[in-house]
Write a structure and sequence with these properties.
Elements: E1 5-8, H1 14-23, H2 33-43, E2 46-54, E3 57-67, E4 75-77, E5 89-90, H3 98-118, E6 123-127, H4 136-139, E7 144-154, H5 159-162, H6 165-176, E8 180-183, H7 187-200, H8 209-222, E9 225-231, E10 237-245, E11 250-257, H9 266-280, E12 285-290, H10 294-300, E13 306-316, H11 318-330
Parallel strand pairs: 4-6, 11-12
Antiparallel strand pairs: 1-2, 2-3, 3-4, 3-5, 6-13, 7-12, 7-13, 8-9, 9-10, 10-11
Helix pairs in contact: 2-8, 6-9
Length: 337
């Protein structure tokens, strides 16, 4: 069996990368070259796409965002703002037997990890998509594993039968108040809601206005998602949600709600209508995210989705561990990233 080659892909190879992503069980819209390039540009980070070749054939890969925290550390990560996960993608080998599939996956991941560790990064954080169900190849290479969670909901579900009582009541309450939802792609509206949502919590938005507008522009330009708003009878927007999609499923990306209308059920109605709209557009599954944030999990779980684990792995070197200990000692509630 010949040795696999792992190297950085050039822009001329992005078409082959996107074909691999589309074919891979791990591939998502967050792995697409358009998404990765635009996100890195807006974050002022360096993007590298690692490709794993068997001869002339691209059979796997991993995107990395590079950054320099504190101007001291060299950090590589597969996740970033607007990119909840990325990680490795593995080519599909059809109806092969289990042992063959495992050997194929392990061989590709081992080659990618060997290449990454040779680059001398102080810290590497890979968060893989839910399509990667086995991270033994990481732990066998000495990487530290992590488990995360998301919620996935079939869009053909009759939510008025399967959702929790409070979800059904909030949908009906919103309708009685004349609240309705519709598709409306308006970055100004969303940014205003996002700022107000986080201001109520005493926080800054997790994304800059420039970044939000840039990613919304990409979504609209490429036709890979939509924005939906819930409005009061007066026309005032009470909640908004941005959803994007790939060939496998749709993904909830951003959501915000007016603090003045939290008790109206508008956010619940918006989510309910969004699920039904996606079903009408033949998107059969919706990744609702939110599995790692307790107060959001309490809301999303009311729609009776399936809890799905996904896996990460980190590789810290000595300098990172020392600086992290120093920072944790000075600021116990934070960590060096």
């Amino acid at each position: 069996m010949r040795r696999l080659e792992v190297r950085e892909l050039g822009s001329a190879e992005f078409e082959a990368w996107d074909a691999l992503v589309a074919d891979s069980a791990q591939g998502t819209v967050f792995h697409s070259s358009d998404w990765l390039v635009e996100n890195a540009l807006l974050l002022d980070q360096t993007l590298i796409l690692l490709g794993c070749y068997d001869g002339e054939k691209l059979i796997g890969g991993c995107p990395l965002y590079l950054s320099r925290p504190y101007h001291l550390l060299h950090v590589a990560s597969s996740k970033a703002v607007s990119t909840p996960y990325g990680g490795v993608v593995i080519s599909d080998i059809g109806d092969a037997k289990q042992r063959t599939k495992e050997m194929h996956t392990r061989r590709i991941i081992a080659a990618i990890l060997e290449h990454i560790t040779r680059q001398g990064f102080d810290y590497v954080d890979l968060v893989n998509a839910p399509g990667l169900e086995d991270i033994r190849a990481f732990t066998q290479q000495g990487w530290n594993p992590a488990v995360y969670y998301t919620y996935v909901l079939p869009t053909h579900t009759d939510l008025l039968k399967t959702a929790s009582k409070d979800v059904r009541q909030n949908v009906r309450k919103a309708r009685r108040q004349g609240i309705s939802s519709a598709g409306k792609f308006d970055p100004d509206v969303f940014w205003n809601l996002l700022v107000r949502t986080f201001a109520k919590q005493g926080k800054e938005p997790p994304v800059s206005e420039r970044h939000l507008r840039g990613m919304l522009g990409l979504i609209k330009e490429k036709g890979i998602g939509e924005m939906r708003v819930a409005s009061m009878p007066s026309g005032e927007v009470a909640a908004a949600e941005v959803t994007l999609w790939d060939a496998k499923m749709a993904h909830s990306l951003f959501a915000a709600a007016s603090p003045e209308h939290l008790s109206t059920g508008a956010a619940t109605l918006l989510c309910y209508d969004n699920v039904n709209s996606l079903n009408e557009q033949n998107h059969r599954m919706l990744n609702l995210m939110a599995g790692n944030i307790p107060h959001l999990s309490a809301f999303i779980s009311g729609f009776n989705p399936r809890l799905v684990p996904y896996y990460g792995a980190e590789y810290p070197r000595f300098r990172y561990r020392i600086l992290k200990r120093l920072k944790d000692g000075m600021y116990p509630d934070n960590y060096a990233r």
